[in-house]
Amino acid sequence: MHGRVTCCSVRIGLDATPLIGPRTGIGRYVEHLLAELAIPSGADPDVELVATAFTARGASGLPTALPQAVRNRGRRIPARGLRWAWERSEFPPVELLSGRLDVFHGTNFVLPPSRAAGVLTVHDLAYLRYRETVSADSAHLQVLVERGLRRAAVVCTPSNGVAQELIESAALPADRVVVTPLGVDASWSTAGPPTADRRRALGLTGSYLVFAGNVEPRKNLPMLLRAYAAAHAATGDDLPLLALAGPAGWGPPLEVPGPVARRVVRLGYLEQHELQSVVAGARALVFPSRYEGFGLPPLEAFATGVPVLASDIAATQETVGSLAHLIDPEDEDGWAEALLGTAIAPPDDAPAAARRRAVAARFSWSATARATCAAYRRAVEG
Questions:
Q1: Phi, psi of 143 (to 5 degrees)
Q2: Burial grade of 126 (CB within 10 A; 0-12, 13-18, 19 or more)
């Protein structure tokens, strides 16, 4: 059940561009944040939510993606043109697209020029710390983020780790940064495994491990596949299948080692209800990323009770901690050993699953919205 979220009485604009197209991590963040913020707006006439998409492509589909209480305002202007202008100037101001605002929230690294109090969400610093692992478009973020940080009254991050990175790298005062952890949708806790017919249709003909996320360099999938091949060489087909769930993303084509080609199942992009089912039916979720700002898939797997093998990075330490099996993302032998363990591990016990579910239950989208409203109030109050 949703908790009531109380914001200051203002006209709040948000960048809703991530809602256009298939929902990946940031799209789901914006989707759930808007849904929670919209709950009190019908009963509170002093709160008005305005969503704007900074793109011409696909913008016509935005109204159907918004909660009923959120107004769609904007003009169809090519995204590249806007970003080019915002990298170099203070024009056009967001009000030219959205109308008058008291607060504008740049939900996806970019905060346009505005007369309103600015709030900017920086999800991670991959564009700065791991430039070799981000796309050409993401590499251009450095200038846009730097300009956004200068414009912002308050900066939101999904984790304490990213907050500290930002404070150190951008010399931001700590009191301008608000941590707004992401949430786990309640539907994850009730997800059940796929039916036998659905498993066959997906190619999941035996027990399986699952990776959930974009296929891109920082997700570290080539290492995972090499480790999986090594584990398979040691145990043969007793090793669970490896299912890769997520959009193609970008980067070099993913090469599956020949000996395990028939054991790796590429599921592609799955709608959330089907992804939940696939994760709930897995022997474990694998999360080998070199770097993340938060690490939502391990928490979502925990909500289903499923074990997690994850990289020992700040994001997973902060969220799933010692209840996950954490391995150095560069330790290929360590990953092979952990994967091998899934072939010989005894059936998971109910108390362990309950402990995982309890960790995931600490993270809710209503809490995300409450923390974000605190950022809005701080921005307005100066």
A1: -65, -45
A2: buried
Domain boundaries for CATH 3.40.50.2000 within the chain: 11-183+364-381, 187-360
**Digit-coded pLDDT (tens) for 103-127:** 999 999 999 999 999 999 999 998 8
CA–CA gap between residue 135 and residue 126 (Å, rounded): 10
pLDDT at 229 over 60: yes
| Predicted confidence (pLDDT) at residue 41 exceeds the cutoff of 50 | no
| Strand partners for 326 | 310
For the domain 11-183+364-381, what is the CATH code?
3.40.50.2000
CATH number of 187-360: 3.40.50.2000
Among candidate residues 172, 126, 178, the one with its CA nearest the CA of residue 367: 178
Q: Shortest CA distance to 65 belongs to which of 103, 109, 113, 33?
A: 33
Cα 335 to the center of its chain, rounded Å: 23
- Are the C-beta atoms of residues 33 and 156 closer than 8 Å to each other? no
Mean pLDDT of 164-189: 95
pLDDT for 136 equals: 64
Name the pTM for this structure. 0.92
